[in-house]
User: Fold this.
Amino acid sequence: MSQTTIKTKLSRRQYFFIIVQTEIGVGILSLPYDLHSAAKQDGWISLLIGGVLLQIVLLVIWLIAKRYPDKDFFQIQEAVFSKWIGKGVSLLYVAYFSMVAMVILLLFVRLISLWVLPQTPFWILALLMILVCLYLASGGLNTMARFYTFVSIFLVVLVAFVLYALKDTQLTFLFPILNSGWMPVIKGANEAVLSFFGFIISLVIYSKVEGSPAQRLRTIFYAHWFVVLFYLFTVLVSFTFFSPVEMSFIQEPLLYMLKSFEFVIVARLDLFFLSIWIVNVATTLTTYVYMTGLGLMDVFNTKKTAPSYMIAALLILIPPLFIGYNMERVDEFNNFVVWLGYIFSVAFLFIIYFVSLIRGSLQKGGSS
Amino acid sequence: MGFLRNLLGTRDKIEDSSHKGQDQQPNQPSSKKLSENVEYLLNEFKRTDDLKIRAMNNGQAVLMYFEPLVDQEKIQQNIFTPLEMGHVEHISEIPNARSSENLEEMIPTLLRGHAVYMEDGSKTITRFNVTSVFNRNVEEPQNEKIVRGSHDGFIENLMINLNLVRKKIEHRDLVVKYFKVGKKTNTNIAIVYMDGIADPEIVKKMEERIKAISVDMIQSPGYIEEFIEDNPYSPFPQMLNTERPDRVTANIMEGRIALMAEGSPTTLIAPSTFFMFYQASDDYNARWYTGTFVRLVRLASFIIAIGMPAFYIAVISFHYEVLPDELLLPVKSSINEIAYPPILEALIMVVIIELIRESGIRLPSPVGQTIGIVGGLVIGDAVVRAGLVSNLMVIVVALTAIASFVVPSNELSTTLRLMTFPLIFLAGTFGFVGIVFGFLFLTIHLTRLESFGVPYFAPVAPLSISDLKDTFVRLPLFMMKKRPKDAHPLQEKAMGESREWVQHEPDNNKN
Assistant:
């Protein structure tokens, strides 16, 4: 028995961390604000509702993936929709993934410019970021998995930072619960779903993970609920640290919260928090570079990994250069991509599942 | 002696087959005429002056050997004494003699320091092993000293080095394989591993890569390393260099492969991981609390060595707000009157330290002390008074230099000092953001690196929790029941229950 043959399958632990690191990204800094502006102090309930709703989508993802145990996401498209329509759908997904990546890049550079480097031109930071992601993605999925697992230790540090803020929280800020009824809470769930959009990675790489379907489903759920709890924690801390009135002004509550502390050794924890947050953004963006590159490879039937990722990176880097720090256009673009997200990350998955069901039953009927 | 001869025998075989592959059948049958034989050998050796021809039996026979390579004592003892004492009738009956009829075969034999005996009227050529050997003692290597534990070290002789390893692992599974590398230098190299523990795939990979080397000269394992490592463009060493037999044997027992070369005390170990460079033999000889503490200090030194100047530069040129109020004033007053920007200050200091280090290495020790005084007192003090570099920067750079020397491996230490430069530049241009990007590139690079198909950054990425007990910490030895997974050992179990006597012994605490 040879043990050195390169392990092509990911372990379930790596699968867990890939999902977690992909979902936790740019959104975490503004999530409390977004939730608060939609549902006031009940935003955390919206988050839970969003988490539960997504459970259904994840189940559909699993049902699709289970039917094609050895195909990746883009190969599934071709199996479900026949070759050429499948390729068309794959291309749409490539476009969608690259657009999400653009939004991430835009928001990331904007925040860095706001908080740390106000005079640095957009393209330098964007280029640095995309280079890091390209370097990581071209190392292959195994390298990514190893790296994601390793940097997850920083999540602990982030939690520790936020934990320190607990001493100044006031639970009364959460009351009254459901003051304005369920409607705002449901609307807030919309905001919550956004922050989980990375979950589609669990479908894309499902076939590359070892373990029985049931075990993998459990991993997907664990990862999902880990992220839900992580978000819930940050949201609850920011909601109880700032009063509802303050919350409506503060776009990045976590950073402002940490900014107010001063230790004997260091002041301004927010800068350290931000530094670690860059790592999380990098992992998220890398996943999208990877998915875009993988899609390109599958659509154009090529095995050349390095040029594919290079093209994917260029595709992601160039359009944002024309938007830059222009806030209105960033927001416009962001809203557009969110809308696309509902189509591609939720609605279309149901379509894929039903088409594959119908085709499956047709084939069965034909053969019997 | 028999053991040595066996080894030499196998070496002959391998070498002969490789010769066949290289220049098709170097077979030159010997002639019955002595003069023709002698003439042939003389021509092949370009009539070099140190090839000694000693006529015997009134010119009827001849004994040839390279004078600098042989031991005159041995010639007397092995050849002439038996003849004179009348133990043997003919010279070819002497034990230790081997005969052949191939003149070409005599060429490498002579070069190895053997003597060749030829007779007129006979095709048979007889040869004797009379090689002289000069060795220094197996003393402790200068660059890897330890406090406790074995104090022997490898030397420049391959056989003695193998002897040291075999003495430490007395087991039938210890396998040594010989290779000849370097078309002109014909350097002997050997790989050593435990059959049944080392992964045969990695052994095969190693053999293939060694056989692929096609150069005229091999000087040291450093040469070989660059030919066989996975990623020659990486700044990180991917094979562990050591001169310590105990370190080599411990690694062989973990399922790794050692590569030794004639003429160099340095042994390469593959596959290696990043954290192996931070393990020292001392860790295992000390109490495990101490071992753990020292190892943590060492790993912290890694962060200090590459990140400290960058962090300082980022703070004083971008993020003053990170400093608490009490510290702000001293820092500010220290750098206020410096003419240069912090990044230039740091570069000046780092370059000065490198200069001092490099000039000190090769100087005889009395002069070396002068360099220490000039470097430490004159430059360190004067540079601050002259207002070129701030006090704090001197502290930071000095700390960095010290931290970089903490690594037990010289190769990694130099790499670390090289790594500070890109980080200094990134910190000087982007502050904390630059440092984070720098570290991201570094970590991704480490994660991508592989040493003989084995992940270099194991057991951290890919994570292997059970192997962490000998990485950041050094837990008690009886807890390390399994070999580390990164070397792909075939046999995971390294020890059984070794402390079950605890349950049998009466509890002494009760009375």
